[in-house]
Structures are given as C-alpha cells and as structure tokens.
C-alpha cells in the first residue's frame, strides 16, 4: 500500500528577489525525494511578468513544488494567514527571512520592524526552522558582539538579538543565521556598480574585500533547510573570494578583456559623503577585515564560486 507524505512548507520572503530566487533554485536542484517540500515564494504581486517569468524558468523537481503567494511585510500577520491557507498541512515548517530596506522616508527602521515581526509570527505559528539572512561584521564572535557603526548592519544585529531572545537561543524555534559579505552582484555596469568599484579602489586601496555570489547564499540556505540538525544554532559568514581591488581588476581583465567599469574616484567619494550608510560601511571595511573562512566554506561546497568563476557564469559581463 502506498502512502502520501505531507510536504514540508517553506515560506521564502523576497521569493522573486535575488536571494529568494537563488534559494528556490538551490532547493529545486539539491533537495532529495525523501522529504517532499512545498515552496511558498512571497511577492508583492504574483501576476507581474517578472514573477511569472521566474516561475516558468525554474527547473522541475519530482518532490518539490512552488507556488507564488501575495504578501507584504508591512502586514506580516496577513502574510502568514495567506501562507497557511496555501499550505496543504495548514502549517509552515520553515521560513527564510530577508529584508532589504533599512528605513522609510520618515526614518523608521523598516528592516528592523519587519524582521522582528517575522520572527514573532514564526514563533507564534510553531515554525520548526528559521533561516535569517543577515550580514558579516568581522566573523562569528565579532558579528555577534559588535553591531558596528554601519546603520543597516546595526539593524541586522538587533534583529539577530531579537531572534536569540525570543527563541530562547533556539529552544522555541531552531534557526540558522547566514552572514554574507559583499555581494559580487554589486559590481555591475550601471552607475551603482561603477560607484561600488570606484569606492573599493579609492577607499580600501590595497586592503582585501571579501565577496560572495548570491547563488552560493542560496545554496547554504537550502542546505540549512535540508539538514536542520546540522545547521541549527549556527552562524555562517559567507564569502567565496578575498581580493584587493588590484587583484580583482586583474582577474576582470583576464576574464572580460577590459578594466572593471568604475566611476571617477571623486564621484565615488562624494557619493560616500552623501549616502551616510554607504560611507560608514566603507569606513568600517577600511579598518576591519571580513570574517568568512573561505577555505572552510569551500570544503563544505567544493564548487563555491570565486570571482573569476562568477564573472564567467553569473555576471552580466562577457569577454569582448
């Protein structure tokens, strides 16, 4: 006699964003057939061409299904109500929490408000496993103890502390905290990407910067959900490369055939002065090193992307 196993429902915030999309793809390509999974990918509007394109482009998996659901972090209870209605078991087993907007125009720290609200709702709904996407602040101990003077990093630190307090350090809900370093995807051929490159060169000079590919963040998130016993209570700083600007630019020239696109240094410095949070971030990076153990991470994931591999596989740049 055959039996049907009720799938584990995983709620992924920002399901059509970069991190959410990377996590979904990783779950669809690495999950096994022993534990069926239902992915609920949260998006503001599931009917948009972008959302529908993401859904149609995803690989198929024999035991993992995906559904787009409408949700807004300004109303977390309503979001969870929608998710529960979409779940076959009327329950949510896992939650991936990522917030991107530090504050609104009035200065209210939306990321903190929303991040804490998602934690509280998850606990109240008896979620079994929670993955929070935070930021590296110099390694495990330093990230845990020092919020830094970078406003949006300090916000994530407070959300982490809320997670620890409300779960009683994992007693009420198991969790894993991912702490990515700088995204390789921040280097792009638009103004923001060029300003990032120029800031790296002008401010950090010969200091090394740790970087991670968003695809790899998704992989570690998927591994946490697929192996919760191994990842529960862990804090992972994530990076696949540690390079000075000169080293990165040399790799860029070898892979793409030109220098990394960048604005003028004076433009970058003016931007860092105007955008206080960005300026604070580079000021911190000028004095502190990223804390990811790249070699240890590569032992966990042998195909962890370095900068050259990312340029070839995932970047918008192609060799001329």
Automatic annotation (TrEMBL):
InterPro entries: NAD(P)-bd_dom_sf, NmrA-like, NmrA-like_oxidored. Pfam families: NmrA. Residues 8-297 form the NmrA-like domain. Keywords: NADP. GO terms for cellular component: nucleus. Belongs to the NmrA-type oxidoreductase family. This is Nucleoside-diphosphate-sugar epimerase family protein. It comes from Periconia macrospinosa. The lineage of its organism: Eukaryota, Fungi, Dikarya, Ascomycota, Pezizomycotina.
């Amino acid at each position: 006699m055959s039996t049907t196993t009720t799938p584990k429902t995983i709620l992924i915030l920002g399901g059509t964003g970069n991190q959410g999309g990377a996590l979904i793809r990783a779950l669809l390509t690495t999950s096994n057939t022993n534990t069926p999974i239902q992915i609920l990918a949260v998006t503001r509007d599931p009917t948009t061409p972008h959302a529908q394109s993401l859904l149609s482009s995803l690989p198929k998996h024999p035991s993992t299904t995906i559904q787009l659901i409408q949700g807004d972090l300004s109303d977390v209870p309503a979001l969870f109500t929608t998710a529960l209605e979409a779940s076959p078991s009327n329950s949510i087993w896992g939650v991936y929490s990522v917030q991107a907007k530090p504050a609104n125009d009035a200065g209210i720290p939306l990321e903190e408000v929303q991040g804490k609200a998602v934690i509280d709702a998850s606990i109240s709904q008896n979620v079994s496993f929670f993955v929070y996407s935070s930021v590296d602040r110099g390694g495990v101990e330093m990230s845990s103890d020092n919020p830094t003077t970078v406003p949006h990093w300090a916000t994530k630190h407070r959300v982490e502390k809320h997670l620890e307090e409300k779960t009683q350090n994992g007693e009420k809900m198991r969790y894993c905290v991912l702490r990515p370093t700088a995204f390789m995807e921040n280097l792009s051929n638009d103004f923001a990407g060029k300003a990032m490159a120029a800031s790296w060169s002008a401010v950090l000079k010969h200091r090394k910067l740790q970087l991670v590919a968003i695809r790899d963040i998704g992989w570690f998130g998927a591994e946490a959900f697929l192996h919760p016993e191994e990842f529960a209570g862990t804090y992972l700083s994530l990076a696949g490369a540690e390079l000075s600007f000169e080293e990165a630019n040399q790799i860029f020239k070898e892979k793409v055939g030109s220098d990394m696109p960048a604005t003028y240094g004076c433009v970058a410095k003016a931007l860092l002065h105007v955008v206080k949070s960005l300026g604070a971030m580079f000021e911190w990076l000028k004095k502190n090193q990223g804390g990811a153990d790249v070699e240890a991470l590569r032992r966990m994931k042998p195909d962890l992307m370095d900068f050259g591999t990312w340029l070839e596989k995932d970047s918008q740049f192609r060799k001329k």
